[in-house]
Amino acid sequence: MAGRAVVAGVGMIPFTTPSRTETYDVMGTKAARAALADAGLAYEKIQQAYAGYVYGDSTCGQAVVYGLGLTGIPVVNVNNNCSTGSSALFLARQAVESGAVDAVLAVGFEQMQRGALAMAYTDRPTPFDRFDAVMDRIQERDDSPFAAQMFGGAGRQYAERYGTSPETFAKISVKSRRHAAGNPYAVFKDPVTVEQVLASPHIYGPLTRLQCCPPTCGAAAAVLVSEEFAKANGIDASVVIRAQAMTTDFPSTFEEQDMTKIVGYDMAKAAAERVYEASGVSPTDLRVVELHDCFTANELLTYEALGLTPEGTAEKFVQDGDNTYGGRVVTNPSGGLLSKGHPLGATGLAQCAELVWQLRGQAEARQVDGDPTLALQHNIGLGGAAVVTLYEKVG
Question: Beta strand 48-52 with 288-290: parallel, antiparallel or unpaired?
Fold first, then answer.
């Protein structure tokens, strides 16, 4: 091991709707340039690049990186569904920690189309066949988007188990918009009320339209370097990755007839536990978290999967305001996927950027009080992969 990976620079562009987007190559290059500028590092110093995206032809990563220059470095394209950005970060961190490189770029981008997510290929088995078979044994299908049926079904099952009210799920959307109001990169900044959230069109289970993340376009990036490289090049080394874990599905996903398992509860829980064990940090030590709120139901479930509140107590956690400013831990100060937006390949790196800004004290109107020194990130993709990352301010 060469030592910890320093997050030397982060960058992103304002997220937007598909009708207003630039092309993926333009967005990705802009975000990468912003991260390099933040690090104060010339692109020629970068030795590898990991490029994450879901919707695009092969080697889109090269198209983005070539916008920075033609230096002949390895460019690895990464696709892990909604956890793509964090998967690219995971590989970049491993490259630095192993000593294979001293400076690496992770960039994520997505140019999405309007409408709900759908399978691109209909002439072959989908990665979700195994998941669909289990879901069909648990709940009825309808014509709503498949992801909404998965997460909405999980939310409904959780609510039946613990008596969670529809208002509790809706409050998560209200909180999300309130946080996004201070984020210049977010798509949706206008406030909403619980009544408005509940009155929006019903989608599936407890979910209404205002409880579902929108199709989004955007890009984000991070530059990771070794501690030695940072010192030699006068780079700010105050934020490091203290621990990180990636997990995929366990037998419980397919054996327990439980929709919460189908949407990755056990993956997230296992990844978080590994991070806590490796770092010696407890969930009670955390004051700021960016987690994967593609639907309000998943944010609710993830509170418990990450150990922010004991199992079965997420409703009280929300009702007591412990998930926002003035509470125990500020979740998704960026506005999260629900309000900031969810360009699949960029999301994990946008979460990284937000947490680095929080630890540096650069989050402006979103800044969490008390000068947090630890920040946790959770990014999940069905199919499946979960990545949990713990950042620490050390300088």
Answer: unpaired
Share of the chain above pLDDT 70, in %: 99
- Among 326, 324, 284, smallest CA distance to 306 is for 284
Please answer whether residues 314 and 304 qualify as being in contact, where contact means their C-beta atoms are separated by less than 8 angstroms. yes
Element (H, E) at 271: helix 265-279
Sequential DSSP letters for 73-111: --EEEE-BTBTHHHHHHHHHHHHHHTTS-SEEEEEEEE-
Write the single-letter amino acid at 111.
Q
Q: Tens of pLDDT along 33-92?
A: 999 999 999 999 999 999 999 999 999 999 999 999 999 999 999 999 999 999 999 999
3-state class (DSSP) for residue 113: coil
Token pair, residue 139, equals: 């709940």
State the Cα torsion 257-259-264-265 to the nearest 10°. Answer: -90
> What DSSP line would sit under 152-218, residue for residue?
HHHHHHHHHHHT--HHHHHHHHHHHHHHHTT-TT-S--S---HHHHHHSPEEETTEEGGGBPPB-BE
Residue ranges in the chain whose pLDDT is less than 50: 1
Contact of 361 with 355, CB cutoff 8 Å = no
- CA proximity to 92, closest of 101, 80, 84: 101
Q: What is the dihedral of CA 207, 111, 142, 128, to 10 degrees?
A: -110
Q: For residue 1, what pLDDT is reported?
A: 46
Instruction: Look up 212 and say whether it is catalytic.
Output: no
- Could you read off the pLDDT of 3-19 as tens digits, one per residue? 899 999 999 999 999 99
215 neighbors 347 (Cβ within 8 angstroms) = no
Residue of 82, 212, 294, 352 marked catalytic: 82
This prediction has a pTM of: 0.97
How far apart are alpha carbons 6 and 236 in whole angstroms?
9
Angstrom distance (rounded) from CA 187 to CA 210: 13
Residue with tokens 């080394």: 237
